[in-house]
Amino acid sequence: MQGNVVSDMLTQLSTCRIVPVIRTSSTELAYNAVRLLLNAGFHTAEITLSVPGAVELIKQFSAQENVLVGAGTVLNAKEAQACIEAGAKYIISPVLADHVPELCKEANVLCILSGLTPSEIYTAWNRGSAAIKVFPAHSMGGPGYLKSLRSVFPSIPLVPTGGVNLHNIGDYFQAGASFVGVGSDLVNTALIENDPASFIELGRKYLQSIET
User: Which of 133, 147, 205, 211 is catalytic?
Assistant: First the structure.
């Protein structure tokens, strides 16, 4: 049963295709970002622990049935535990965080560690990461680099993050991305604060870009 739950979550994220990465300077901005993304039609969001009050926000949104809330920038098992207790459906770490895969497995929560080089990706996979966040993807050549990784690791779900935008998102999927993480190119704090309608429209453009 445990494996099925984690596998189902991975499938759901792959169906969502885009995971908005919420990294804001205030709790209010992060809350509004998630609320507006839901309005635009998104069904998931990664709330990073760099956001003030992130764990409480995860707890608040995890109580809603219309959103899959994940925790990002999780650096250690203590942080992972707090996010799991708050109701996070998936845990994403930008590093090869010790003990986090084991903790997630015990809690029946999807774990995604990060790797940039082939050795890091293979290490994360062997530690029990259900998918690998390739971050920062753009620094290694973007979609072309991801395509090279897919040729080496065809069975490992890869999630490029960092530099994904409206202009290259299709290329990442053509290169074999299972889904992508999109940060400031989508979660534009100036729009959230000053022009929510344009922010919603931007979100809808991202969703339209992945329609098949």
Answer: 133
